[in-house]
Amino acid sequence: MGSPRSGTTFLAQMVNRFFDVHICRDNGTILRFYRSVRHYEPLENDHNLKRLVHHLYADHYFKSRLRDRGFTLSEAELFARVVRRTYGGLVEAIFSATAESHGKRQWGYKRASFARVGGERLDDLFPGARLVHVIRDARDVVLSMRTAKDSLLERSWHFGAVDWVSHLQTGRRLGQQLGPERYLEVRYERFMAEPATVLLGILAFSGGGDRAGRDAARIRSEIGPLVRSGNTEKWRRVLPPGAGRTIERVAGDLLGELGYPVLYPDVVGRPVGAPEMAWLHVDRLARTLVQTRLGSLIRYRVEVLKAAGRARFSRGGEKR
């Protein structure tokens, strides 16, 4: 987990390449259905669980992000695979089958905003999970949000910084709840500078498994050419000074706490008045409309509404 554009995708790719683990990505579908699970409970009832499985298969993003990427079970096969009749048991059945299709014995999950699930709900979804939190300099993160294509991300300097602070603070609070046995922070900048050392640390944190020695040898010999070591502190070269001041105004305190350099301490924490905030919202909306593919945004919203409607209004005949 980590803020968007913090390196979670690259880390997931490296884990998939070197570990006996397959990290699954799903555009937030699993978390989205979890928010509606009350409409399907109790899942001990066969009808309710089958209805939930059927609605998952009807979801566009479940198909495009999971079924089209290695998850091959039919609805009946998935239903039969669920051992624990809980939503977490259903998630385990989906992701373990996906991992097996990729020749892996363990599975993981990658979602930048995962920390927002919260500690109690975390163990509903992923009992005993260990979390790796990727942290990257806010200025590089917000710059990447601003320039990313085909992504539903914040586009303004101000709200990008707000988003970064929210993800970081939420993730670190979750880490305090879980403790060091289940929570590990990884700095993106160190990962780029010392990729083998960092990845070996993650391997040890994850438990490694009986392939750990072989995996470690491959990491040491192969990872170097895969990493763009200069992919840090881009903000120093291309971020306009005004944008740097805007980001540090919001994120400067947390940047300093994390040990990142703060160039504009005079603006850190300065409050935003109502007229300025109104302008920031107008700028945010304009940039979203101009820089985001509206078709993708509309499609996502429509699919979310369709899934919510199925959950609420297709309850007919379930037994409790």
Describe the protein's architecture and organization.
- The chain is mainly alpha-helical.
- The protein contains 16 helices and 4 strands.
- It has helices at residues 8-18, 29-34, 46-58, 60-65, 75-81, 87-101, 119-125, 138-147, 157-178, 188-193, 195-206, 212-222, 235-238, 241-257, 274-291, 294-313, and strands at 21-24, 106-109, 131-135, 183-187.
- The strands form 2 sheets. A two-stranded parallel sheet has the order 1-2. A two-stranded parallel sheet has the order 3-4.
- Helix 3 packs across helix 5 (75-81), helix 8 (138-147) packs across helix 9 and helix 9 runs parallel beside helix 14 (241-257).
- The model has no long low-confidence stretch (mean pLDDT 90).
What descriptors fit this protein?
16 helices; 320 residues; mainly alpha; two-stranded parallel sheet; 4 strands
